[in-house]
């Protein structure tokens, strides 16, 4: 695999401060959090956020809001039908990851991703659709880079991604990696680089020192170096989409 399966680090992190400003709406049978940019900010561009196991919760909503502030129509679908891992369950140590993962397989999640892409492309004026994936969500960004489903992809500290999925991409991909990551390890990062070279697609891999798996979506922002890495990873995504969605 290009990255290992989720481990305990997927369940760690900090709750970020802020008040989400988007709306919960319905896409077919599932809900989505949608943050809209100011009129005329960046016409024609949508970014789909494919989340970690915490789904639609404050940190991921705030990321969507940040994309909207940068001019994108940002769509965060509920990939888990309301069965995301909750902060309360995490705090109470009620999580059985193997059981939870068995309820949310590729056959369960992929149709929601495809429906969200179709929804984004159907919005008035949308010409380009990109996707940003965090942890588990990264797998579905990479899979969507096949067959022209999306036009550009960004992933942070990926999990569950296979070498075959990386090797099959047909659109550009950018990756933010953590120095300390038992899932996207140094060896996995290097092998992914070699695989990306063979795709013929544009790619970027940025490594952030001193941070661990999850830093880009749920890092402890009270730590100066973690805040810097989180903010720079987000800036990486925006710069990548600006570059590739022209």
TrEMBL record:
Record has S-adenosyl-L-methionine as a keyword: no
SUPFAM superfamilies to which the protein is assigned, alphabetical: alpha/beta-Hydrolases
Pfam families assigned: DLH
Keywords: Hydrolase
Annotated GO MF terms: hydrolase activity
Residues covered by the Dienelactone hydrolase domain: 30-244
PANTHER family the UniProt entry points to: DIENELACTONE HYDROLASE, PROTEIN AIM2
Protein name: Dienelactone hydrolase
Protein species of origin: Aspergillus keveii
């Amino acid at each position: 695999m290009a990255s290992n399966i989720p481990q305990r680090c997927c369940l760690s992190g900090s709750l970020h401060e802020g008040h989400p400003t988007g709306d919960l709406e319905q896409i077919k049978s599932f809900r989505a959090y949608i943050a809209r940019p100011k009129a005329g900010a960046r016409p024609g561009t949508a970014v789909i956020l494919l989340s970690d196991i915490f789904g639609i919760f404050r940190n991921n909503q705030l990321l969507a809001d940040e994309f909207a502030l940068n001019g994108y129509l940002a769509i965060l679908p509920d990939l888990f039908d309301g069965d995301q891992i909750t902060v309360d369950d995490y705090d109470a140590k009620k999580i059985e990851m193997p059981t939870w993962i068995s309820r949310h397989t590729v056959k369960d999640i992929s149709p929601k991703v495809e429906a969200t892409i179709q929804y984004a492309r159907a919005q008035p004026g949308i010409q380009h659709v990109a996707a940003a994936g965090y942890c588990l969500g990264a797998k579905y960004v990479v899979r969507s880079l096949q067959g022209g489903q999306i036009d550009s992809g960004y992933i942070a500290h990926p999990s569950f991604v296979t070498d075959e999925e990386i090797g099959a991409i047909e659109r550009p991909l950018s990756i933010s990696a953590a120095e300390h990551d038992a899932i996207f390890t140094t060896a996995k990062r290097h092998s992914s680089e070699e695989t990306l070279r063979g795709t013929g697609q544009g790619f970027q891999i940025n490594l952030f020192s001193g941070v661990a798996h999850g830093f880009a979506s749920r890092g402890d922002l009270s730590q100066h170096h973690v805040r810097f890495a989180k903010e720079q990873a987000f800036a990486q995504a925006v710069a990548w989409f600006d570059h590739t969605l022209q």
